[in-house]
Every structure is written in C-alpha cells, then in structure tokens.
Amino acid sequence: MKPSDIRPQMSTANMKISVCVRKRPIFPKEEQAGEIDAVSAANPIVRVHECKFKVDGITKIVENHDFTFDNVFGREPTMALYEATLRPNMNLPFVRGGVVTCFAYG
Question: Which of the pair, 8 or 69, is modelled with greater confidence?
Fold first, then answer.
C-alpha cells in the first residue's frame, strides 16, 4: 500500500449498502506462540500476507492479496467505527422511512 492509497473513513449516510471491516489485532498469546500478524489494514484496503514457498520448495516468499471495502478500521477505537458507520444512519428509519441493518461478526 502506498500512502496515497490510504484515505479517511467515509460516512455511510448516503450509501445504500456499505461493507466495513475491522481488523482484529494479534493477541499477545498468539504472539508468544510465534504466530505472526498476517493481515494489514489501511482504509480502504485490507492486505492479507500469504506465506508460500517458491517452486524450488525451499525459498520462502510472501504473496500479498489486497481487498478493498467501503471502510476499513484497524486500531481505531470502537467509537470511531460507530461514528463513521452506524450513527449517520440512526435517524433513517424514523425520518425517511428506511431500514437499517447492521450485521456484525466476531
């Protein structure tokens, strides 16, 4: 990711559908077990780092896979996530007769 790829979170107020992702940090227990953080997050991109071997079967490489979403959150506090995604839509059902659904996993 280049610094020019990173942008501030967008308000979801005028979006019909919005897909937002929050990256879970690696737990200290995982770190102590020698695991690595295989995911980076910089809005609007989530980058998954896949460890692989070259064709020779010996040389280790990392292949990156980028996924773009409407908003991506890393270490931001929960309130920042709420302010950018849910709060702008809280009046929608009452004022404009719309429907708001939030599906959260994890």
Answer: 69
CA distances from 95 to 13, 42, 89, 91, 92 (A): 13, 34, 10, 6, 5
What is the C-alpha separation between 13 and 22, in angstroms, rounded?
19
Minimal CA–CA distance to 43: which of 63, 67, 13?
A: 67
Residue 102 within any structural domain of the chain: no
**HSE, side-chain direction, 13 A CA sphere, residue 35:** 11
pLDDT in tens, 31-74: 999 988 999 999 999 999 999 999 998 999 999 999 999 999 98
- 27: domain range? 3-9+17-95
* Predicted TM-score of the model (pTM): 0.76
Whether 103 is in a domain gets the answer: no
DSSP three-state, residue 43: coil
Q: How many domains does the chain have?
A: 1
